[in-house]
Amino acid sequence: MHTPPTSVATLRAALTGLLLLPGDAGYDEARAPWLRVIDQHPALVVEAANVADLVLAITYARTQGLPLGVQATGHGIAKACDGGLLLKLDKLNAIDLDTATRRVRMGPGVSWKDLLTQTQPHGLVGLSGQVSSVGVIGYTLGGGIGWLVRKHGECCEYVVGATVVLASGEIVHASATEHPDLFWGLRGGGGNLGVVAELELQLVAEPHDMLAGLRWYPMARVAELLPLYRDWAATLSQATSTVFRLMRVPDAPQFPASIRGKSACIVGLCHADPATQAQVLASLAVFGEPALDQVKMMAYPAIAAAEPASHESSAITYDQAGFLRELSDEAIALLVEIGRSEFPPLLQLEILQLGGHLTPSVAGPLPSQASRTPTAAFMLHTVTMPEQSGWEEVKQVTEETFARLAPVLTGELYYNYLRGDQQVQVAAAFTESSWLRLREVKRRYDPENLFRFNLNVEPAE
Ligand SMILES: Cc1cc2nc3c(=O)[nH]c(=O)nc-3n(C[C@H](O)[C@H](O)[C@H](O)COP(=O)(O)OP(=O)(O)OC[C@H]3O[C@@H](n4cnc5c(N)ncnc54)[C@H](O)[C@@H]3O)c2cc1C
User: Fold this and answer.
1) What is the reported pTM?
2) What DSSP letter does each residue of 361-403 carry, written as one string?
3) Which CATH code, of 2.40.50.100, 3.20.20.140, 3.30.70.940, 3.30.465.10, is assigned to 95-206+429-445?
């Protein structure tokens, strides 16, 4: 591109995709993120239809001094792009699967649902999270901890290469041998270094259905169940990932009277080893008779499909996460106290078992499983639905909950589960040396911090 557009009219004429202004049909739909925590009002929205559109939009925002927001699905919106250019990626959803190499190249609009639908029939999966409406690239750039984390690790470890449009408008390819510093930064540094126009991901072979799902128990049993869960989890191989949830059960007919509309404890698992599934199923007996049993054999995509958020087009949630050193007696006592208080207005508190797969080397800026494992055996994550209470109450309860848990948390944070109002804490998602290196890489590829409407890594000074 020789002469960048200097007005909305010339930008619109140069684009293949749509440009929407306030008042245009489709503007309100386009500006709305999936996570309705932020109500943003960009001056214009560009719905990119190809890589050239990405270059045009980025160059226009930079040369006009406009704030630039980048949005695939809006599950991870961190900051309102008010008065700026919102670059939408959701129309760029091409998928190119190579079953011979078990690799897939995809555009930035691809969600986990889209990807797994194409790869799973070939016995191949990507390391998705718990909810399949999330965008593959946004999730992977921030780490990617999901149901197969103990068997295979975090998704960002499986990035093979990426085509990136930089703040300068230049298109570069990053891999282990091309722009290796950019490649390193993309594997966990979020959307800070440029817009990924195409990502190449290594898939893993998981040809069999898995033993997976949730077992629900009345909250009255929480003090008994948590120690049982700790002991049971310690016996499992890395083929099994597990969760323990404290949850407010919806008042809906599919739930039995003993838990319907009340709070409950959940033991959940995903076991990816057909040779030992009977053993693992039998081992669940230690928890006694559940109020509701949803554990069964299922194809990998069906695990995420069971989560309501995989289907609902939008939700207002407020979440926070940390890491537990271990499920110590002290941690269990605190969790029991929180569970027994019925934790209004929290919807869910989840402990996700880590450990297992150990990465041989740190391939990106996030702490690897290997470096986390000695200090963090579980990730702890709370989800709140503010629509059921006021925002202030929700924030206060979340903060109070984490303050109570502080003595048993490691102090580390997880990039993908940071919220926009936690900007000052972004550094806590990285080790100190990785943080410094990431800021250097940021300075090299985005010195003006054009990509700052995210969980921001500021360029080194
Ligand atoms: C319901 C729900 C469930 C979740 N479950 C999990 C889970 O199980 N495990 C987990 O690890 N995380 C999980 N997350 C967190 C999620 O991975 C992050 O919020 C992630 O950033 C979402 O990416 P997105 O593209 O869907 O969202 P977006 O809001 O569109 O993007 C989020 C950020 O990524 C950047 N970005 C997106 N695409 C690109 C691109 N192509 N190039 C450059 N930057 C880009 C954007 O600039 C933005 O800052 C969950 C989030 C929600 C809301």
Assistant:
1) 0.96
2) S--SSSPPHHHHTTT-SEEEEEEE-GGGS-HHHHHHHHHHHHH
3) 3.30.465.10
